[in-house]
Write a structure and sequence with these properties.
Largest interface: A-B, 28 and 17 residues
Helix content of chain A: 25-40%
Number of domains of chain B: 2
Number of strands of chain A: 18
Strand order of the largest sheet of chain A: 6-7-8-3-9-10
CATH architecture of the largest domain in chain B: Orthogonal Bundle
Structural class of chain B: mainly alpha
Order of helices and strands of chain A: EEEHEEEHHHEHEHEEHHEEEEEEHEE
Oligomer: heterodimer
Distance between the termini of chain B: 34 Å
Radius of gyration of chain A: 24 Å
Structural class of chain A: alpha+beta
Radius of gyration of chain B: 22 Å
Largest sheet of chain A: 6 strands, mixed
């Protein structure tokens, strides 16, 4: 186990931010801490890095109790949302910082830094200053800087949060590939469920300072532990007394005693998907259909149809939570 | 074009204001100084009294700058990076020297460190004379220029944030390495600006230093005190020569602040 967090509690003043949080991060994994803002995920990451002290509980990194260790002794790499680039140093000097602190020989530093800059595609930018880089380049520099000291774990706090959508998507894929190359145990914080599902191999859902669920992306998406997780990981709609994913609702024009009768209110075409708004006994719901299915059904507003969850659906009873 | 007219009128007003208040007096001092050529100036400024005044001024200003740089950076970091009880009181106290008349500062120092006061008497038994001596003058200059470094550094430190410092810590830097390699370079321009302001203020200080120095010729007489004393004794050549030197020092420091002032 690369990181073991046990029963961590942390309050800022009287506000509890983390409540009895315990998580395990396996060596070499890429884990996402996912949750709404204010859910405690950044605080948990900072507790692991030693930038915050937990009120109670322990943090074990690679088998060593690190709870009372200062950040400088934990050997973790930390990447900040706003890059935290050393503005008065060149890209080269930024990446070399941790190695210079460790008093490595000059030649070794030069070799290692250039290696890392190549890895993050910034080898042409070595002599530039952070102010001359774009946001995405700065974040890649910060990543190289964190990797330079060969950390036991790499922690990223909303690493793509400050970037625009296009760059964010590119960097996501790139991070995934980088991780497959470097294999360093990585934990990143995000509030974007799509990002977590796409990049991570384990997702920890955090809300109100508590761990709501831990599992692979497929697990948390398909078998959410409760309503909250289900709502947070993707779109949901109501069907009778349960929550279902809108793409798990099947519509047929014929009457079917096994299904529920509904009236079509509106059909919205959104490119490849079609959103069908329905009314069941005065209750609004909606279904997401593939374009081909919608074309075949040719639904019209006012039309009476039968709806039912698809065989693959895992509806969540509303009364359960 | 009434708009243009107003603009020209405002410009003329501003220039006229500066002309009569600042440019004319300074130019006249220079003119009076150099009226009889360089010989008399050199003579007036090379008397033992004048040389001593230069030395005392530089010594007092130097120590005031050293003390306020150390205190200023420390206080700024304390105010920006830490929460502690009494923070607002400290913040208000730092601005106090701006509000209090220098003469009052001098008198207050005498009350505490004078020969017949408790603290001053105790220091006297240790062989340290504060009042009517250089230590007291340094204290006065320090007090007067106290806020300058702090106030120059605080906003820059705030804007800098602490993420770079945290990043340095996670990369293995201790607090001193972080301070020296990250914090100081981050605030260097503001710090330089504050130091120069502090230096200018300490060089030109008159009121507080006048009270605590005792104005002992060739012992505790600074350049400003020298100017005043020479003027009172109808030695206009020396008074104007020293005044011009002071003005020149001010111009140099002013130019330095222009160079050091943060660009954005």
């Amino acid at each position: 186990m690369a990181i073991e967090v046990r029963d961590v509690n942390k309050s800022f003043g009287v506000t509890p931010v983390l409540r009895d949080v315990s998580i395990d991060v396996t060596s070499g994994s890429l884990t996402a801490l996912l949750g709404p803002s204010g859910g405690g995920k950044s605080t948990l990451l900072r507790v692991i890095a030693g930038l915050e002290q937990p009120d109670t509980g322990t943090v074990v990194i690679s088998g060593v109790d690190a709870t009372r260790l200062s950040p400088q002794r934990r050997n973790v790499g930390f990447v900040f949302q706003h890059y935290a680039a050393f503005k008065h140093m060149t890209v080269f000097k930024n990446v070399a910082f941790g190695l210079e602190i460790r008093k490595r020989p000059k030649e070794e530093i030069r070799r290692r830094v250039m290696e890392l800059l190549e890895l993050v595609h910034l080898d042409q930018m070595a002599e530039r200053y952070p102010s001359q880089l774009s946001g995405g380049q700065r974040q890649r520099m910060a990543l190289a800087r964190a990797l330079a000291v060969e950390p036991q774990v790499l922690l990223l706090d909303e690493p793509f949060g400050a970037l625009d959508a296009q760059v964010r998507k590119e960097l996501r894929t790139w991070l995934r590939r980088l991780h497959d190359e470097v294999h360093v145990t990585t934990v990143f914080v995000t509030h974007d469920q799509e990002e977590a599902i796409e990049v991570a191999d384990t997702i920890v859902v955090l809300a109100d300072g508590q761990v709501k669920q831990v599992g692979s992306p497929a697990e948390v998406y398909d078998n959410p532990a409760d309503q909250f997780v289900m709502r947070f990981l993707g779109p949901v709609t109501r069907l009778g007394d349960s929550l279902v994913r809108p793409h798990d609702i099947e519509i047929s024009p014929a009457a079917d005693p096994a299904g529920t009768t509904a009236t079509v209110v509106r059909v919205v075409r959104l490119g490849f998907e079609v959103r069908v708004e329905l009314l069941i006994d005065g209750q609004e719901t909606w279904a997401q259909l593939a374009r081909s299915t919608a074309d075949r059904l040719d639904l019209q507003p006012g039309q009476a149809v039968t709806v039912r969850p698809s065989p693959a659906a895992r509806p969540l009873a509303l009364s359960a939570s | 074009m009434p708009k243009n007219l107003i603009r020209y009128a405002l410009r003329a007003l501003a220039v006229g204001y500066l002309l009569f208040l600042l440019v004319l007096p300074v130019v006249l001092i220079g003119w009076r100084t150099f009226a009889n050529g360089l010989g008399p100036i050199f003579e007036a400024l090379s008397t033992p009294q004048a040389i001593s005044a230069f030395q005392v001024t530089l010594v007092v200003a130097f120590w005031a700058v050293v003390a306020n740089t150390v205190f200023g950076v420390g206080a700024a970091i304390l105010l920006v990076r830490h929460a502690f009880p009494g923070k607002r009181v400290l913040n208000a106290l730092i601005d106090l020297p701006m509000a209090v008349s220098p003469v009052v500062v001098g008198l207050a120092l005498i009350l505490v460190y004078g020969k017949f006061a408790a603290v001053g008497g105790w220091l006297e038994t240790l062989g340290v004379q504060v009042i009517f001596s250089v230590p007291g003058m340094v204290m006065a200059a320090v007090f007067i220029s106290l806020p300058l470094v702090v106030r120059a550094v605080v906003p820059v430190l705030e804007e800098l944030g602490d993420e770079q410092e945290q990043a340095a810590r996670t990369l293995g830097a201790g607090w001193w390495q972080t301070f020296r390699r990250i914090t100081i370079p981050g605030i260097r321009w503001a710090l330089g600006y504050g130091i120069v302001l502090c230096l200018a203020r300490a060089l030109g200080e008159y009121g507080a230093v006048a009270v605590v120095s005792g104005r002992l010729v060739e012992q505790t007489q600074t350049l400003t005190l020298f100017v005043e004393e020479r003027f009172q004794n109808f030695d206009e050549t020396a008074a104007f020569a020293a005044a011009t030197s002071l003005a020149l020092l001010s111009v140099i420091t002013l130019l330095l602040t222009k160079i050091l002032r943060p660009k954005d």
